[in-house]
C-alpha cells in the first residue's frame, strides 16, 4: 500500500483516504438552461485518461479535508498533491 | 397519586466494565505496560478561521494557547487543545461542565465567524503507559510511532484497526487514545489481545490467567 501525502497531515496510508473523482469539473453557471443531454454530460461524463489525471481526494480517516492530486492512472502513483480545498468557514491555511 | 421518583444521573465511562480487567492486566504486565481508562472530560469541537482573531479570543476563554502546527496539542489549565485540522480544534476540560464549556468557547468563536459544539459524549479516552505502549499500538496502526517521529506534543487522527482514533503523545512511554464509545470495546479487545505478547512466562502450576473480556 502506498502513502499519500495529505497537505495537512503529511504522508498517510492510502487506506485513510477516499476517492472523489475527476477534479476541476465546474458547476454549470445556469443549470436550468441546459438540455437533458448537457446536464447528463455534467453529471455522469468524466475523462478517463491513460496517464496523469487530476482528481479529488478526501483524507476521511484523518483531517477529513478535500484536496486535489495528480495520479498516474497507469502506475497508480501520485505525481503531485495540491493545497487543501477551502472549507465552510473560509479557512484554507 | 403516585409519588414521583427522581434520580441523579451520573456520568459513567463507556468502558466501565473493563476497569477490573485492565487493572489486573496492568498489574501483571508492569512495568512494561499499563492500560487504564481516561477520565470523563467536557469537550468541544471548535471551528474558526485560523487567520482571524478567533483563536486568540478562544485562548482568552480557555486560559491557554491553541496549537498552531498540524497534528500537535497543547496543555490547557484543566485539559487539552488538539489541532484536528486547518480550522478545527478539540478542546477538553476536566473542570468545566460540558454545557458551560461549549457556551464559553462558542461565544468567543462566534464573534469571529466560528463556532463550537459540545462533543463530550463523542469520544472516550484510554491511557497506555510503559515501554511497550508504542509497540502495542503499532499492532493496529501504521503510523510511525517511534518517539523521534511522534514525540510529546504530537497527536494524530488515524485508524487503529478499523476504528477511527486520535492518538496523543504525552511522553516517551505515555500515550492517550481517543475513540468513539461504540468502537471503544473493539479497540480495547484488540489491545488486550495484542498485550498477550508482553505477559511473563506462565509458571506451570498457576494455570492460565483469565482475561475474558466482559
Ligand atoms: Zn489529512
From TrEMBL, chain A:
Q: Which InterPro entries match?
A: SoxD (IPR006279), SoxD_sf (IPR038561)
Q: Does the keyword Transcription regulation apply?
A: no
Q: Which GO terms describe its molecular function?
A: sarcosine oxidase activity
One Pfam family in the UniProt entry: SoxD
Annotated EC = 1.5.3.1
Sorted alphabetically, the keyword list is: Oxidoreductase
Q: To which species is this protein native?
A: uncultured Actinomycetospora sp
- Coiled-coil region list: none
Q: Would the keyword Oxidoreductase turn up in this protein's UniProt record?
A: yes
Query: Know the name of this protein?
Result: Sarcosine oxidase delta subunit
The GO annotation for biological process reads:
tetrahydrofolate metabolic process
Automatic annotation (TrEMBL), chain B:
Q: What is its EC number?
A: 1.5.3.1
Citing just one GO molecular function, the answer is: sarcosine oxidase activity
Q: Per UniProt, which keywords does this protein have?
A: Oxidoreductase
Pfam families from the entry? Answer: SoxG
Which residues lie in coiled coils? none
Q: Which Gene3D superfamilies match?
A: Heterotetrameric sarcosine oxidase, Probable tRNA modification gtpase trme, domain 1
Which leading EC class covers this enzyme? oxidoreductase
The record ties this protein, via InterPro entries, to:
SoxG, TrmE/GcvT-like
Q: What is this protein called?
A: Sarcosine oxidase gamma subunit
In which organism is this protein found? uncultured Actinomycetospora sp
Amino acid at each position: 500500500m502506498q502513502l499519500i501525502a495529505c497537505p495537512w497531515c503529511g504522508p498517510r496510508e492510502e487506506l485513510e483516504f477516499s476517492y472523489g473523482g475527476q477534479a476541476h469539473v465546474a458547476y454549470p453557471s445556469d443549470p436550468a438552461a441546459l438540455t437533458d443531454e448537457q446536464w447528463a454530460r455534467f453529471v455522469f461524463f468524466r475523462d478517463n485518461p491513460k496517464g496523469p489525471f487530476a482528481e479529488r481526494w478526501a483524507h476521511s480517516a484523518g483531517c477529513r479535508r478535500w484536496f486535489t492530486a495528480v495520479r498516474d492512472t497507469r502506475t497508480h502513483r501520485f505525481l503531485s498533491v495540491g493545497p487543501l480545498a477551502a472549507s465552510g468557514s473560509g479557512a484554507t491555511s | 397519586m403516585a409519588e414521583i421518583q427522581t434520580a441523579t444521573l451520573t456520568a459513567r465511562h463507556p468502558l466501565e466494565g473493563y476497569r477490573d480487567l485492565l487493572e489486573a492486566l496492568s498489574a501483571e504486565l508492569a512495568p512494561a505496560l499499563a492500560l487504564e481508562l481516561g477520565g470523563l472530560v467536557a469537550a468541544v469541537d471548535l471551528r474558526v478561521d485560523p487567520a482571524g482573531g478567533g483563536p486568540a479570543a478562544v485562548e482568552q476563554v480557555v486560559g491557554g494557547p491553541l496549537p498552531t502546527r498540524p497534528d500537535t496539542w497543547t496543555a490547557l489549565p484543566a485539559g487539552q487543545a488538539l489541532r484536528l485540522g486547518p480550522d478545527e480544534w478539540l478542546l477538553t476540560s476536566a473542570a468545566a461542565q460540558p454545557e458551560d464549556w461549549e457556551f464559553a468557547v462558542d461565544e468567543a468563536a462566534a464573534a469571529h465567524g466560528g463556532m463550537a459544539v459540545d462533543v463530550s459524549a463523542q469520544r472516550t479516552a484510554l491511557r497506555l503507559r510503559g515501554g511497550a505502549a508504542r509497540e502495542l499500538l503499532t499492532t493496529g496502526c501504521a503510523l510511525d510511532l517511534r518517539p523521534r517521529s511522534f514525540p510529546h506534543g504530537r497527536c494524530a487522527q488515524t485508524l487503529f484497526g478499523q476504528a477511527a482514533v486520535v492518538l496523543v503523545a504525552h511522553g516517551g512511554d505515555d500515550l492517550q487514545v481517543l475513540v468513539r464509545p461504540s468502537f471503544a470495546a473493539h479497540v480495547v479487545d484488540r489491545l488486550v489481545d495484542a498485550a498477550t505478547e508482553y505477559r511473563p512466562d506462565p509458571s506451570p502450576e498457576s494455570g492460565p490467567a483469565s482475561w475474558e473480556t466482559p
